[in-house]
Design goal:
globular, alpha+beta, 5-stranded antiparallel β-sheet
Length: 438
Amino acid sequence: MKVTNWGRFPVVHADVVSPLSREDAVAAIGSAGQIARGLGRSYGDASLAPRIVSSLRLDHFLDFDREKGTIRCEAGVSFDSLLKLILPEGWFLPVTPGTKYITVGGAIAADVHGKNHHKEGSFGRFVHELKLLDAQGKLLTCSLTENPELFAATLGGMGLTGIITEATFRLKKVETAWISQHTYKAHNLDQIFRLFEEHRQDTYTMAWIDCLATGSDVGKSVLFTGKHSTMDELSPSARQQPMQIKEKFKLNIPFPLPHFVLNNYAVKAFNALYFARHRHGHKQVVPYEPFFYPLDGILNWNRMYGSRGFIQYQCVLPLEKSYDGLSEILQMVAGRGGGSFLAVLKLFGPQDGLMSFPMSGYTLALDFPLEDSLLPFLDKLDEKVAAFGGRIYLAKDARMSREIFEATYPNLPQFRELLSKFDPEKKFRSRQSARLGI
């Protein structure tokens, strides 16, 4: 069958198997050239292979300690399902990316980050233990004390160490399902960097950035900060049911939009309106969903980039080089035109897992509709990122070269050595790992 991930590029033909149990998963391990896959929300080819082992039927909750805030579940459990279970009990996800439609297994394999990485790190930091099916079909327990090398390699290892079947991780205690949000406007890169530094102690921070701004306006952006609201911060009506928020109607994009819809003029108009509608210093209490998952409110939003799909390009630069590097990258994007209106800037703390993407510094994520001139341009961006000591996020990569990858992931030799030890026949292999020579 044809399979593609969220960017809708590339498309592969794959044999997809969906084990119902751990025993089925053992039987599903065949010869070389297979990879586990969850909900397909990685953007590129990290979970694509000739043979795909789907985790979606391994979706059972196994234990929930409501006092300590720890949960054990199978790898196919989605963050959406988790929130429906844990939030009414006063708990929240310790780390979440910009969509709740991912699986626990995928979150570990990509070691996902969120708006709180600068303070609380990646998802893997909260994982106490995981169960992993290795290339021989053995079920291994992995943690900081048991098979620690394999544990470290699995966090951010993009599924190449084996099939994650279950995980135990800790949650975050919250009083309400609401977020106290502050909004700040920055007119250039100097101002947004200063704002990020001023709000380093805030739990959640992220900025929308106008990637078409030029000259003295380069870096024009809107910073959003937030924390989980207390009961005292809610309105009287919201206090009646502080953990329940009425679900809103979701828009749907039923088919791929024509390519011309996201032209340069449309993006410029959107950026101008978006910047103008926000007030500097504005404070409000908002539901958690639009704060963490704004795009989840639009079903099939990936179709707005047209039938060819799109590439989300996310890089991170070291803290000491972030300002100069981002200044040059943003000028390159603006100079090309056709910039993304889904442009996000975040601050990272130190790296966690062996192959985890984050490093102390700033990360920029941009969406580009796929067209003939895009790939050569992204190659140039790669070179710029590498020159500044940064790297590209594997969970969103669909086209990076092996040379750039090897130059920007310093722990790659150690990772390759571990894979040779635990999977010498390369039974777990994705289209991405083959492309990058992992």
